[in-house]
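Quick look at the format.
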Amino acid sequence: MLSSAAAAAGSKHDKDRNMAQTNDNIAPSSVPSRHAFFSKPRIIARPGFNRWLVPPAALAVHLCIGMAYGFSVFWLPMSQLVGGSGSLQCPVTMSFWQQLFTRECDWKISLLGWTYTLFFVFLGCSAALWGSWLEKVGPRLVSFIATLCWCGGLLLSSVAIYFHQLWLLWLGAGVIGGIGLGLGYISPVSTLLRWFPDKRGMAAGMAIMGFGGGALVGAPLANALMNFFADATGNGVWQSVLALSVIYALFMLCGTFGYRLPPMGWHPAGEKALKVMSAHSTVQVHVSVAWRTPQFWLLWLVLWLNVTAGIGILGMASPMLQEIFAGKLLATSLQWHELNADQLRRIATMAAGFTGLLSLFNIIGRFFWASVSDLCGRKMTFAMIFLLGAALYGSLPLINHGGYVAIFVCALCVIISMYGGGFATIPAYLADIFGAQMVGAIHGRLLTAWSAAGISGPVLVNYLREYQLAQGLAPQRVYDITLMVLTGLLVIGLICNQLIRPIPQKYAMSAQQQQQAKGLYTVNENAQLSWEPRPSRALMALSWFAVGVPLLWGIGTTFQQAVKFFM
């Protein structure tokens, strides 16, 4: 990028020479005929292409796969498929393996919850395994495979629900769908980082905020579909999952076909963009080298600690609110064990609104903190996230004991915004340290931290809660020690972040490695490396409208629930 910028100020001969060195665009005549539609060279943008057409394509994919966060909306209906609203419990003598195949009794919600764990385990594993493949074949093919996996997994899940086979649900949604999550997660991030080298944080935030917004759109849509399909013969779960697989396939394919890549060495027109890019590291590190550096593992710990603290609380936010404040939510002094069935239902409804509010701040935080990182730097942004998070976690026991419901809600909203912000900022952090050449592959390997946190976070929070309840501690006090432990994790994360240093030149890719990283590209000396975008108002408006309307609908639905909570 810097070489092309310098060439622009030199002679025409030097300009052409530098383009040949940095640009791996391919001439149209060189595109292979076989699988041309999905090939990486096929999607190189032509001069005049507007880079703001790429974010809605990325959002279309992430809004669909983000439904993984909202899949818990199906747990209760899935646990009532055999016995109806009363749930027919399996005999205590029935083994685990028998429960995987039985059609005689209902599934336990605890077993259904393993689908959620499988989502994120296979997300991290698939991203790590096939991140390098993304760099070779490009985002269009990877996103297409992600669509087949995610929507195919949902299709298989609807079959599993219809025939009441738990093992098939885990295979369809958890394993196959989880692979689709991983591939669908990394492809938009890598693409947008290339299109916005001057705004890496904002680019990552735009890509990843859709994943957080998937539950805002998907959960109310799933509820509406279940209400539509429900009848005397069933609660409409399998039909709703089947309908979602079709809807999501259409949206994801539109996003997939909307992907374009800039030529290697491309940069936005204007001196401001060049000034910002000049501050970035020019060291390009190969993925096979990056994961062996101290910087990679410090960043791995930074992400793991941030996500462990956030995901554990996110999964327990609803019971925390209900158990800590109990009757205070209804303007009474009753404790949790003193509430009747009607009062429990009322506070459960309020807790659902609270959960939706957290999802909204999860989205906002992804864009906000990632954009802040463009102004303050990645290291400083993570330092603020860890410091503020530790302060909030550490003060929550005092807030809880004082009965300050509104302060508790606000504190959790800020905490969850930083949880999402960490996700969104980490790809830009990686690009700053290791270069943008293979950031998709490096990001894929780093996402194993997410898989690890998806297990460690819920296990830590849930088991600490159960242990303290077993010791006879009152429900409103069982989270005090948990919050202190999470505070300690964030302090360790702060230390890891402060230890990160710029990558030494010795880790830079050799000329041979850079050539291999370019993969299928053929150098085109005549490629243009900077341009002013052509006006494309109609296409721009249609693209943003297609993703903006569902997102706004989800936000509006969440606000309706949140207003009831505060009233």
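Next, a different chain entirely:
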Amino acid sequence: MPPNRSESWQKSANQEGRIILALQAIQRGQVKSLFAAAKLYNIPYTTLHARASGRISRVDKRWHSHKLTTLEEDSLVEWILSLDSRGAAPRPSTIREMANILLATRGELPPPTVGVNWVSSFVKRRDELQSRYSRRYDYQRAQNEDPRSIRAWFESVQRVIEENGILAEDIYNFDETGFAMGLISAQKVVTRAEYYGRRSILQPGNREWVTAIEAICADGYSLPPCVIFQGKVYIAGWFESNLPSDWRIEVSSNGWTTDEIGLRWLEKHFIPHTNSRVRGRYRLLILDGHGSHLTPQFDRICADNNIIPLCMPAHSSHLLQPLDVGCFAPLKRAYGRFVSDLARASYNHIDKLDFLADYPRARIEAFKPQIIQNSFAATGITPFDPDRVLSKLNISLDITPPGSQPGSRPSSRSSQFAPKTPKTVIQLQRQTKLLNNLLKQRSNSPPTPSKTAVDQIIKSACLSMHSAALLARENATLRRANEKKRQKRTRSNRHIVHEGGLTIAEGLQLAQQPEQPVEENQVVSHGGGESANQADLSRTRAPPKCSGCGELGHRINRCKKR
């Protein structure tokens, strides 16, 4: 049941309705005077006179506890939205600082300030704002999240599928993902109540890198992985870990993939495992722009085996690659959980054999057929739906609706006059001209249009002043950052040759000393003494070498054999 409304609330609501009716009757000329309207609608004359003079109702009136005026808050909201549209949403402390700057522009001494919790109350009463946690967003990704490039890529995918008659069962995606064997990410744990702060969790800490090459199909099938270890030789124990026989193991100097490994994976792993599953004539292989995927040998092998490789736009794998969207995240969470379990069991080192024991279990959780199919659907590839990706973009296109017409010119008559807040100098000049015409034509009628126009001009001026104050602060911050960059450019990059550490004073003293030229034919003495040590520490420049004849002692511009 709805709550019972008090008698005073109902009385005030009925009176507010009668006041609105009375003001409308006066404006339409149905009632000749305020006194007659007050008597007709049973309203106190003083109340009606105050409302007709421009006083707002008590319900719509702002609380006296608000530090900032409505115009100042509007200016602050506009500044916040401007920063948010540029990908630089401000922190609550920055908003509080800007609010204090607006209060300081009033000229009061001492200047008023807002409270510590003012920002949270401000965000709650403004429907345009919402506080959220931020996330890291790479600048290169933001640059390449252009709806036009993404839409062009989907058009190329659709064209390739239609021209070659590629079925969903012949669409594949492959990519590499890396692991630090003994590192786990932060996780939620349960600890004792009196513990303060984040709980430290022991982990093996082995940072040896291992790479896994994974490939999935749009119908839910996943190929056996290819694991790349850091090393130069293979260890027999790797192959005795009860792994499936169709898994592949490679080695490299740093645990990363190379061009040769990519070619061997394509020729000896991908093609044999997918030849028996081909439903049509061609296979579509979606991949990113990694260097090992863009070699001429890779393209030649694909062409010889009816494989069409299709590269995604740069820095867009988080949107367009099914493995990145749906599979790799649960894979790494599962592997991190297994490593954490080993750490709780007093494991202090995770080696390659431990990785080969835990990685198959992690793959079972991450590469389920339903997860793979959902990954292709989330990227808009199968079923083909580009809008699922385009709707996630942070960049929105500024498209003017077709057939839109500019607003009609306002009538000069007072009854049809509806002024708006000017946003530009031209709009302000037009409204000022219109205001002057209204003042000239004013007679005994109520000056409502003139007053409204004056209020809008004043509002526009206040908004400009508030925006100028906020922009002045932002420009000052940018100037300080530019000055800091200029000072960094002026610092010396001279090399100081010295054995052992240096204090700041010692380093400055050595940097201020003039640089001693070193002769080319200087002979370094290997005998004892201070001169020998200085000679050993000095740097000798190698003689120039001619790029034409290859002889030492001159450059090609002075070569006599040219």
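The chain is about 45% helix and 5% strand.

See the schema section for token definitions.
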